[in-house]
Write a structure and sequence with these properties.
The protein is built from 12 helices and 25 strands. By secondary structure, the protein is of the alpha/beta class. It has 2 domains: 147 residues, FAD/NAD(P)-binding domain (3-Layer(bba) Sandwich); 215 residues, FAD/NAD(P)-binding domain. The strands form 8 sheets. The protein has a 5-stranded parallel sheet. A 4-stranded parallel sheet has the order 13-12-11-17. Strands 6-7-8 form a 3-stranded antiparallel sheet, with no helix packed on it. A hairpin with a 4-residue loop joins strand 15 and strand 16. Helix 5 packs antiparallel against helix 6. The longest helix is centred in the middle third of the chain and has 19 residues. The protein binds flavin-adenine dinucleotide. The site of flavin-adenine dinucleotide (FAD) has 33 residues, from helix 1, strand 2, helix 2, helix 7 and helix 10. Its EC number is 1.6.5.9. Keywords: FAD, Flavoprotein, Membrane, NAD, Oxidoreductase, Transit peptide, Transmembrane, Transmembrane helix. GO terms for molecular function: NADH dehydrogenase (quinone) (non-electrogenic) activity.
């Protein structure tokens, strides 16, 4: 029975059930919440956004293929039918494990069990200049910034007869040949081909350049060699320049330099070259973190040295022989860890033995453009149009919310049939300083 006594900070009633606080309503946090929905626990989910973001489709928001609303879902709606669940819009600033307390921008609160499901943030590897001048695509507001900037660059390019400047405005440098960089490069190339000549007939859009820069010797390095090779062929077919074994060194907002002799003058650099775990103060001591700023956990997702604190998803670093740097920072491991932890928390409360997390790798995929995708499954690897349909189906399946699925599906059919991307809107202008290009 659920007994109200007095209210705690954040107006969460005291309960006879243990209080589990989940920080983060991403893939891991939501999957954990679902697993706990019918259990005898009080759950408080905290997130700095009131929505869940489907990050795999952020690049489509940046390139006008989808409206941002169709890849976001209200967290309160996910939890609405779950008894003893609470949501608070809060930015968690610090964890105080010795007092079982969290400090947030809306006050402090105590927990019995804490789950860190805070995901990851962009990793600039200490390069402050790129952090200041580059664009990123880790959240919906950032994707909208990028969408605005891309379109603003073309509007600016129309205003000048200086060919050199125009070329820089139409030069897009994407750093990082992982799925995000590859998908964004492919989408930009399709815009160049299908949209720009119609929207900007008075601009020579054949001069638009899309440069994908990868430090290693192949793109999509987490996938099979066959998938990497095919993805590179697809990109080249679309007119993307792929630069391998090239490490970007600096970007002052105008000039991209690399550790080889290559450099680009470009108004846009998109940094898609790395993420790191979003650890929070109090759980960020050096001895608690593994490579990539991920919080070290054991095979039950329990933070090392803290019996009642757990971490799941991108922020969790579970070092195993097969995964020496932790599981891939992807949606599948995050969801599976959330689910397994939900079960384990119930076992823990019932004094039953915990079940170690075993990752069921269902494969990976990336799309490069219309009819072009690569899919690696355990037994079968394929590329091309069938892979593209599989990619679409899987993404629709994992999107949260029936409305979102319908809207995304309709948009994709419309875009496919009409060769269009109607969300190419500068709703919230991005304030880019173009003066440095006008010297
Ligand atoms: C552009 C892009 C494309 C991607 N494409 C793919 C793909 O195709 N396939 C794939 O499998 N994976 C992809 N990923 C990776 C995938 O999205 C992540 O691995 C996954 O989201 C991790 O889930 P998570 O629950 O750990 O974190 P997230 O989903 O990032 O959720 C973390 C949540 O925590 C909240 N939060 C963080 N810090 C705080 C705080 N201090 N206080 C309060 N709330 C906080 C955030 O607001 C967020 O809601 C992509 C990622 C990006 C950025």
């Amino acid at each position: 029975m659920f007994i109200f006594t007095f209210m705690s900070a954040m107006n969460i009633p005291k309960s006879s059930f243990p209080r589990i606080i989940i920080i983060g309503g991403g893939f891991a946090g939501i999957s954990l919440a679902k697993e706990l929905s019918k259990k005898e626990v009080q759950v408080l989910l905290l997130d700095k956004n009131n929505y869940h973001t489907f990050q795999p489709l952020l690049y489509q928001v940046s390139t006008g293929g989808l409206e941002p609303d169709s890849i976001a879902y209200p967290i309160r709606k996910v939890l609405k039918d779950y008894p003893n669940f609470f949501f608070r819009l809060a930015n968690v600033e610090e964890v105080n494990p010795s007092k079982n307390e969290l400090i947030t921008n809306i006050g402090a609160i105590n927990y019995d069990y804490l789950v860190m499901a805070t995901g990851s943030e962009t990793n600039f590897f200490g390069n402050k200049e790129i952090e200041k001048n580059g664009m990123v695509m880790k959240s919906i507001p950032e994707s909208l910034n990028l969408r605005s900037l891309i379109l603003e660059n073309f509007e600016q390019a129309l205003l000048t007869d200086d060919l050199h400047l125009r070329d820089a405005l139409m030069n897009f440098v994407i750093v990082g040949g992982g799925p995000t960089g590859v998908e964004l490069a492919g989408a930009l190339a399709e815009i160049k081909k299908g949209i720009l000549p119609k929207d900007y007939p008075d601009l020579d859009t054949r001069r638009v350049q899309i440069n994908l820069v990868q430090s290693g010797d192949r793109i999509l390095k987490e996938m099979s060699e066959k998938a990497s090779k095919k993805a590179e062929d697809f990109l080249e077919e679309l007119g993307v320049q792929v630069w391998k074994n090239t490490r970007v060194k600096s970007y002052d907002g105008k000039l991209v330099t690399t550790q080889t002799d290559l450099s680009f003058e470009a108004a846009t650099l998109v940094w898609a070259a790395g993420v790191k775990g979003a650890a929070i103060k109090g759980l960020d001591a050096e001895e608690l973190l593994m490579r990539g700023n991920r919080i070290k956990v054991n095979e039950f997702n329990q933070v090392i040295g803290h019996e009642n604190i757990f971490a799941v998803g991108d922020v969790a670093g579970m070092e195993l022989p097969d995964y020496p740097s932790g599981h891939p920072m992807m949606a599948q491991p995050a969801m599976q860890q959330g689910k397994n932890l939900g079960k384990n928390l119930t076992y823990l409360l019932g004094n039953k033995p915990l079940k170690p997390f075993i990752y069921n790798d269902k494969g990976s995929m990336a799309t490069i453009g219309r009819n072009k995708a690569v899919v690696d499954l355990d037994a079968y690897k394929f590329q091309g149009i069938f892979a593209w349909f599989v990619w679409m189906f899987v993404h629709l399946f994992f999107l949260i919310g029936f409305r979102n699925r319908m809207i995304v599906f309709i948009n994709w059919v419309y875009n496919y049939v009409r060769f269009d991307r109607e969300a190419r809107l500068i709703i919230r202008p991005y304030k880019r300083d173009y003066t440095m290009f006008k010297d």
